Amino acid sequence: MKPVRWRPLALRDVDEAAAWYGEQGGLALELAFADALESAVTMLMQHPGAGSSRHAVLLKLQDLRVWPLNGFPYLMFYIERDTGIVIWRVLQMQRDIPAWMSDGA
């Protein structure tokens, strides 16, 4: 399995989403989001090439891949490197993805 490294913006994305789910639906919903995130990360560690590369061309970020979080309207954007997986952002599907990806890229 490949190790995972989180960019600071991705960590911020996760913190904000988890807090929102906690406020809206309580601890159970916040934990469900965390479980979906953990499942996605585990899957990518085992199969890093599984994510879609369609956003790579649109965003002009070579090797960028995206994986959806099961049960939540979020996409995890990541790049596979020889040394591991770098998670760039975890964004809500309704966001302006190109604008949010360029924020701090």
Note the main attributes of this structure.
YaeB-like fold; four-stranded mixed β-sheet; alpha+beta; 105 residues
Q: What's the arrangement of secondary structure elements?
A:
Layout: E1 4-6, H1 8-25, H2 27-46, H3 54-59, E2 64-68, E3 74-81, E4 84-92, H4 97-102
Parallel strand pairs: 1-4
Antiparallel strand pairs: 2-3, 3-4
Helix pairs in contact: 1-2
Spatial strand sequence of the major β-sheet: 1-4-3-2
Secondary structure tally: strands: 4
- The helix fraction, in percent, is 40-55%
Can you tell me the CATH architecture?
2-Layer Sandwich
Shape: globular
Category from helices, strands and their pairing: alpha+beta
Reported by name, the CATH topology is: YaeB-like fold
* CATH superfamily membership: RelE-like
Largest sheet: 4 strands, mixed
What integer value in Å does the Rg equal?
13 Å
Task: Give the number of domains.
Answer: 1
Helix and strand pattern: EHHHEEEH
- DSSP summary: helix tally: 4
Contiguous runs where pLDDT drops below 50 for at least 5 residues:
none
CATH top level is Alpha Beta
Beginning-to-end CA distance, first to last residue: 26 Å
> Beta-sheet strand percentage?
15-25%
Mean pLDDT: 88
Organism: Xanthomonas hortorum pv. carotae
Family: Belongs to the RelE toxin family.
Protein name: Type II toxin-antitoxin system RelE/ParE family toxin
Keywords: Toxin-antitoxin system
